[in-house]
């Protein structure tokens, strides 16, 4: 699953692949936003952990679970 996080006052976004389900990621982000959390913690496929302050979140884009296609489609 492809995750993209926009960070306020930063020209770049955080982009990584995660094995977590879309519902799980949505629950983590919405829980941090509604319950006054200070950060969002997500893990990628390789075991790295990303901590993003809630105050810096501009957007969180959760990609589809569809695998990427390789090659040209006619």
Fold blueprint:
Blueprint: E1 2-7, E2 13-17, H1 22-34, E3 39-43, E4 49-53, E5 57-62
Q: Note the run of SSEs as H and E.
A: EEHEEE
**Strand fraction band?**
35-45%
Most strands sheet: 3 strands, antiparallel
Task: Give the % helix.
Answer: 10-25%
Rounded to the nearest angstrom, the radius of gyration is 14 Å
**Which strand order spans the largest sheet, edge to edge or round the barrel?**
2-1-5
- Low-confidence sequence ranges: none
Number of E-state strands: 5
By DSSP (H or I, 4+ residues per run), the number of helices equals 1
Mean pLDDT: 88
Gap between N and C termini, in Å?
A: 26 Å
What's the overall geometry? globular
Structural class, from helix and strand content?
alpha+beta
Explain how this protein is built.
There is one protein chain. By secondary structure, this protein is an alpha+beta fold. The protein is 18% helix and 36% strand. The protein has 1 helix and 5 strands; from the N terminus they run ββαβββ. A 3-stranded antiparallel β-sheet has the order 2-1-5, covered by helices on one side. A hairpin with a 5-residue loop joins strand 3 and strand 4 (49-53). The chain is globular, with a radius of gyration of 14 Å. The model has no long low-confidence stretch (mean pLDDT 88).
For this entry, give a set of tags.
single chain; 74 residues; alpha+beta; 1 helix; 18% helix
Q: Gist?
A:
The protein has about 70 residues and is an alpha+beta fold.
């Amino acid at each position: 699953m492809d995750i993209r996080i926009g960070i306020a006052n930063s020209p770049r976004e955080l982009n990584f692949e995660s094995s977590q389900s879309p519902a799980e990621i949505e629950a983590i982000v919405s829980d941090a936003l509604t319950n006054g959390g200070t950060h969002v913690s997500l893990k990628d496929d390789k075991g790295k952990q990303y901590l993003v302050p809630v105050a810096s979140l501009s957007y969180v884009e959760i990609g589809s679970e569809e695998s990427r296609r390789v090659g040209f489609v006619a």
